[in-house]
Fold Adenylate kinase 3.
Amino acid sequence: TEVGILAKSYIDQGRLIPDDVMTQLMLHELKGLDRYNWLLDGFPRTVAQAEALDKQCQIDTVIDLDVPFETIKCRLTARWIHPASGRVYNLEFSPPKVQGIDDITGEPLVQRDDDKPETVTKRLQAYDAQTKPVLAYYREKGLLKSFSGTETNKIWPHIYAFLQTKLPDVSQKDAATPR
């Protein structure tokens, strides 16, 4: 979409998407989901976005994954893709059989602009500056629950146990299925 292309231009420059653009994208997607449980990942990232979300939806819980920026930077900058298929490789935990080459087609892999080290660093700095107030906003409302760590398989069991207290009817199978 036009607004999606605009959003991508900000990401490619290592900048966060402006509040009005991001809020427009997200609130449009949330329309009609009021009878479902849903989880947002990475939104809201500013207090203005949080306030706009609160006007349209009742938020029950906010989860903060407290992961060191160096861990995030290493994971993102190790990510390479095969553009034609969208296959994703990670040099640390899911590398291609031959470095720089897609396993299936033998074509070259590329690194997305937003996964390049300088872009990741800019985005993480902007993220840190803009989201600290969001965490405070939800902490003051009593909705924030933080989980710290560097490995998904060590953090996830704690998150899952917490979510079971909020959504006890969600099965392990359902929780593992992205929507």
Summary: Strands lie at 62-66, 79-82, 87-90, 144-148. The domain at 60-165 is CATH 3.40.50.300 (Rossmann fold).
